[in-house]
Amino acid sequence: MIHLTSTDSINAPIQGQWEPGLIVLSCLVAWLAAGLGLLIGERMQEADSRLRRGVWLIAGAGMMGLGVWSMHFTGMLALRLPLPMQYDVGMTLLSLLPAVLGSGYALRIMAQPIATLRYSVLGGLVLGAGIGTMHYLGMEAMRMPVAVRYDATLFFMSLGVALVLGMVAMLAHRYCVRHRRLTHLDRRSFGVAACIALAISGMHYVAMSATYYLPVPAPHHMVETSTSWLAISVSGVVTLLLLVAALSVAIDRRLQRHARQSTMSREQLMEVIAAINDAFLLFDTQGRIVLSNRAFTAMTGYTSADIQGQLLSVLEHSHESARIHRDIRRHIIDSGQWQGEIKARRKDGQAFPARLSVSCVEYSHGATRHYVATLHDLSARREAEAKIHRLAHHDTLTDLPNRQTLYTRLDAVQAASHTRGQSGALIMLDIDNFKALNDSRGNAAGDMLLRHVARRLKRFARHEHDLARLGGNEFALVVSGLPSDRSAAIADLQHHMTTVRQVIGGVYDLDDHSHTTTHSLGGVWFGDDDVATDELVKRASLALSRAKQDGGNVSRVFHPEMESAFQDRLLLEAELRQAIHDEQMRLYYQPQVDAEGTIIGAETLIRWQHPERGMISPGAFIPLAEETGLIVPIGQWVLAKACERLARWATDPALAHLQLSVNVSVHQFQKHDFVAQVLATLAEHQAPPERLTLELTESLLLANVEGVIEKMMQLKHHGVSFSLDDFGTGYSSLAYLKRLPFNALKIDVSFVRDVLVEANDAAIVKTIIALADSLQLKTVAEGVETLPQRDFLARLGCHHYQGYYYGRPSPVEAFEALVTPLPAQHTTLK
């Protein structure tokens, strides 16, 4: 029976002495027992059956409970009292039970993978309660001639120590498991066991401090028992039991570890095989498949069940399979391995390229032999290589062969022609005025046209590589099977080129609008003579250049004179570039007069003052300048000189009224900064904008009309005038003409020249003048050479005139002298 009291009510209690050695021994026993109990609990978690887990739980609870009981027993003996002492055996053994139960419950919770916080706290409370119950039952088992009393405060404090430290031990174990701070089992067990031992020892010695022994008369039959041999006996027996249990656990753990490592190695090997990206096969000496992995199933469609026991030939798809099989056997016998590319077959019968590697596996024990094969699918690689090859040899826009493929095809056709006694030809063609479409409609429209033209051209290609896109808007077509006779072959070639030009020319639907195209073609014939491919392409290119020089929409066949003409053209281009750099150009002025014959202005006309050839007319170099793009810097130079001249005339009252007309090329006008450039040139020379007239050709109207109108309106806002040059020779939509802000129409010289002898020309001139009047535009007749021509035009209502009748183009000094032969006197030319 437990009796609680207060310190104040206790008189003359019996005092005892503590033995430090036994105190230390009791704590070590408690720590060792707690650690061993945890190790056994870990084994319980690793057990593979409920029975084994139950056995390990009982063993762990018994070892930890025995350690708690032993610690209590040894700790009791550490206090030496001057009294005889005996123990009630039944009660002593009964005190072991709560320690075992509390320990077992705590170990069961610790064995869970991750215990909840509630269960960890509950396990700590049960463990602490077991320790406290065991202690006070053990105290009741003691038989001494004293009355035992407990200080109430320390009594409850001892229970609190057991409960709190028990919960600390359980929470420490949970923290280690959750955060994996201590992954090594023994290291973690040491810390948790220390907390449990501290709970046992702390509770015991706090409880011993709460105990008071009050003297009572001693029974005569009690005999004092020596505590030394008892402490040694109990501690020795318990320690021996703990050591035996620890040894058993260690042996069992080692055996389990070896078994687990053996099992895991086999499983890990299978996982490694399954994780290999390449298909894996294991087969025997008879060629029968023993094992395969997931990659093999994914690659071929054969599952392990489908393929196991099958011969390797189930995968073969080539008529050379037997040869490859013999080759593999020979190499394996010689070197133990073989690798190479094969044609394999999937379960659905589809063939695919694969790289096969085979190695022999010889085991250290026994004569069994296997072979390991890895299979790598090369399909994606072959597709990528094919794609790269196609990109390298084909045009990405039209999917036609490119220049490199054309050269290869030409070599093959030439060789075949020599063998068969035939001849062939190379045709090069491009789209006339393609740049105008790109500039006006954008690159997307140009790309669409190129694809359409490529589709129409394909009908003339006998072989896939007979048709190629060389770049830009230039195509090439190889013609084979022509007669060996040169004259007949060239006649066939000309007929073929005409047919091609007629078929691919015409209207193309470019989504939001239609576009009419013409094409220029150049061809070269080749027969028995061995001509290099580069030379053939060069000759076809020369013929194409001649077709473009002849106005386009024509076909030309190469002849040797073209080469010398091409060299002359190259020389002329180089000299023209030098002429622009050296300012060899000269500006001439041709008078323009009104109905009374008064000079009202002039048109600027360019001439080239060549240092060796003398004066060169614009007809000899302007087409070349247009084709090479040199017309842009030439046009800028003309504009600058014209503005400079207008600025000088503005300071002279006799010349300030003159209007100066400047021709603007399509290329120059289509520059995005054309408006800014004109305004900057006017501002630089301080020229009056209202005295400047820009002459545009009808070909400009075929391009972006909206853009043309916008640029004209911007310049017109600053005072610049516009006239439509060579009206009637091109295509001018009346609807467009009404919208364009022109000031005048210039009647082309081709109509004026025969206006008195050709009724059609007279009718055209009359219609042009009437149209200009209806649109409230002035008319300027070019090429007036005689008085009758002038009178006829005047009767029709023409406003202004220009031609040899009034004056030839001349340097500025001669023109100014013509305007002012006498000071402040205008000249009238009639």
Characterization of this structure:
The protein starts with a strand and ends in an 11-residue tail after the last helix. With 830 residues, it is α/β, with parallel strands linked by helices. Strands 20, 21, 22, 23, 24, 25, 26, 27 and 28 form a nine-stranded mixed beta sheet that branches. A five-stranded antiparallel beta sheet has the order 9-8-12-11-10. Strands 14-15-13-18-19 form a five-stranded mixed beta sheet, with helices on both faces. Helix content is 54%, strand content 19%.
Please give the share of residues in helix: 40-55%
Distance between the termini: 156 Å
- The amount of beta strand, in percent, is 15-25%
Overall average pLDDT = 82
Number of strands: 28
| Cα Rg | 57 Å
Which overall shape is indicated by the principal axes computed on the Cα atoms?
elongated
Q: Which spans of ≥5 residues are poorly predicted at pLDDT below 50?
A: 181-185, 220-228
